[in-house]
Amino acid sequence: MMKRFRDLRQAEGRWAFFAIVALSLNRIRLQALRYALQVPDVYIQGAPKIIGRRGIAFGRGFCAGRNLWLEVVQLPGDPPQLLKLRIGDRVSVSESVHIGAAHSVDIGDDVLVGSQVLITDHDHGRYGGESASDPDCPPNHRPLFCRGPVVIESNVWIGDGVRILSGARIGRGAVIAANAVVTGTVPPGAVYASDLRVRLLKQYDPISRTWSRQREA
Fold it and tell me: Is the predicted pLDDT of residue 15 greater than 90, yes or no?
């Protein structure tokens, strides 16, 4: 250890002292994190935000960048240890990734996730059909709505800025292009990019109290 420090000091000067201290503190933080999560080989940079730990199953070799946010939402009547978020083996996610599960999010093995990615199986409110949400109700007070579970099969590559929403299913080996929005099924082995045009999708009618889809111009 001392020889390593001397070699580093000779190569890097005073910066070597800071690097050694930071490395030592990070090792202590990582051991404490692994103990708290009860996952012996997880590697997460920084301090993650994890809510509902009992509802999360980590696979082997999970790796994440800074600002990780994992959240399992407990709905009324749920047992306290109901698994809702399953992460496979050797899953690697970059910085500022948010994964939220109120019903079921299942991520396969060897999935690579870019930065600034959202994966969620629920929405705040319902915007079609019966019991549609009223826009006068604050979004945070609208009941959570799920169009279906989120399934990401093995060997999927998800680019930066992707949004994977309720009801999405991504087949094995698919590639999701940066900034895409996924709401349906992506076939195995496909390269997927969504239409990012800005357009009006639905409009609320206060008379009928419904959300109606708008026609393309």
Answer: no
Question: What are the tokens at 124?
Answer: 């705040």
pLDDT in tens, 160-210: 999 999 999 999 999 999 999 999 999 999 999 987 665 656 666 777 777
Beta strands in 36-136 (DSSP E): 43-44, 49-51, 56-57, 63-64, 69-72, 85-87, 92-93, 98-101, 105-107, 112-113, 118-120, 123-124
Rounded to whole angstroms, the Cα distance separating 12 from 90 reads 33
* CATH number of the domain located at residue range(s) 41-128+135-197 in this protein: 2.160.10.10
Q: b vs e for 138-159, b when ≥16 Cβ sit within 10 Å of the residue's Cβ?
A: eeeebebbbbebbbbbbbbbbb
How do the domains of the chain map onto residue ranges?
A: 1-37, 41-128+135-197
pTM: 0.84
